[in-house]
Design a protein that fits this description.
The protein is an all-alpha fold. It has a domain of 31 residues. 66% of the residues lie in helices and 0% in strands.
Length: 64
């Protein structure tokens, strides 16, 4: 069974993650959404490229 100290690493990770999410520029996200939507509506191609872990992220973005 897990003890409370076993969760310290997860708590630290989640705390950092929340801080990073708070720094996301929502205007930039909206710009990306608008551009991808415009490409979709106009039947254009959007290339998502990555290498290694970023390649996996690119794959998820394309498929999800």
């Amino acid at each position: 069974m897990l003890t409370p100290t076993d969760w310290s690493g997860l708590d630290h990770y989640l705390g950092d993650f929340v801080k990073l999410l708070a720094q996301v520029d929502r205007a930039q996200v909206q710009t990306m959404v608008d551009l991808v939507t415009e490409a979709y509506v106009n039947e254009k191609t959007v290339f998502i490229i990555g290498n290694g872990g970023s390649g996996a992220n690119a794959s998820h973005l394309c498929e999800d």
